Amino acid sequence: xxxxxxxxxxxxxxxxxxxxxxATATALAAAGAHVILTARxxxxxxxxxxxxxxxxxxxxxxxxxLTENESVSxxxxxxxxxWPMLDILVLNAASLGxxxxxxAIDFKEFAKVLTLNVTAQAAILAAxxxxxxxxxxxxxxxxSSSVGRTPRAYWGMYGASKAAFENLVLxxxxxxxxxxxxxxxxxxxxxxxxxxxxxAFPGEDPATVKPPEAVAxxxxxxxxxxxETGHFxxxx
Length: 236
Description:
This protein is an alpha/beta fold. It contains 7 helices and 7 strands.
């Protein structure tokens, strides 16, 4: 017997090498899940993995670039060979891009942002759809931003990608809600102490915004709950 709400669950967290992703992976592991960590930087992933082990949790790292051709499908195949299902998928990896007026957008950069923030997310959902469907009550949680729903000057590139991302995740949820136990939700972290936030607001005192752990605790609690597809919440 265990009092850990996510005991025996398998979770995958993207962008897990730092910030909200690393904190979420740690929180899920503390709740009993075995967490698969993916991001581009192997060294940073190893540090998160070691911290999880030190706290008595379990994790596996999978360093990879989500935008590389076939990398996501290879990861899906590798995980399917080791585990029979995937209970929790946290889609956290994203790129901010350069904040600029719409007429000044660098469209090569825009294409890269859309590739990670939208196209790669669709590839992840496609690759893990079979494993998610095998779980009794899989949870897919997309980490978004307020600019995906409320347009803001100079944030058009990132905001457009997040609007598309939210639609993608929630559309997937509608497709599978009557044929599986999969439920999808969107979490807006609000102002959080991350490197992305520091880039976007370079003059801000980081001590004035909440740490990633506050968002991670809410995501872990949501993953263990019985929310319905379409659930949205902002962590203030």
